[in-house]
């Protein structure tokens, strides 16, 4: 039998991306949550997915809107992840954004974003997998992405990038 704390500890040794999933409520106010499970699903048609806990207060808003934007947080945005991960917090306080073509918040300073309509939802244990059809996507910056690894935040910088930077003299 696999026990929860051991399961969480071992899987914490797998680095994950940190992605803010955003939408707007019926009142057009921005809403969001943070996930570490964003993934590409299919190229044809273009589909992506993320997992969300069944107790999420944001999931019903995504369902009602039928759309979401996945914002890949940058290495300097751990404060955004912490805010989006705090229940009851005003997640968009001090977070600047602009609406996508679908009306979803695209956060300032992210590495990239993917704007989607909800294609499908699948119940999996204590989570739901939300699959989105990609409608628009964009790389926003050359910043390094924020990662979560061993219960801590960090960013990714490849050793190849360090070598090239040294050769170029940056």
TrEMBL record:
The protein here is known as: Flavin reductase family protein
Q: Write down the Pfam families for this protein, in alphabetical order.
A: Flavin_Reduct
What's in the keyword line of the UniProt record? Oxidoreductase
User: What organism does the record attribute this protein to?
Assistant: Nocardia jiangxiensis
Give the InterPro entries listed for this entry.
Answer: Flavin_Rdtase-like_dom, NADH-dep_flavin_reductase, Split_barrel_FMN-bd
Query: EC number(s)?
Result: 1.-.-.-
Report whether Oxidoreductase shows up as a keyword of the record: yes
Q: What GO molecular function annotations does the UniProt record carry, in alphabetical order? A: oxidoreductase activity
Source taxon at top rank: Bacteria
Domain Flavin reductase like, by residue range, is 11-155
As for family, the record states: Belongs to the non-flavoprotein flavin reductase family.
Keyword Kinase listed: no
Identify the SUPFAM superfamilies for this entry: FMN-binding split barrel
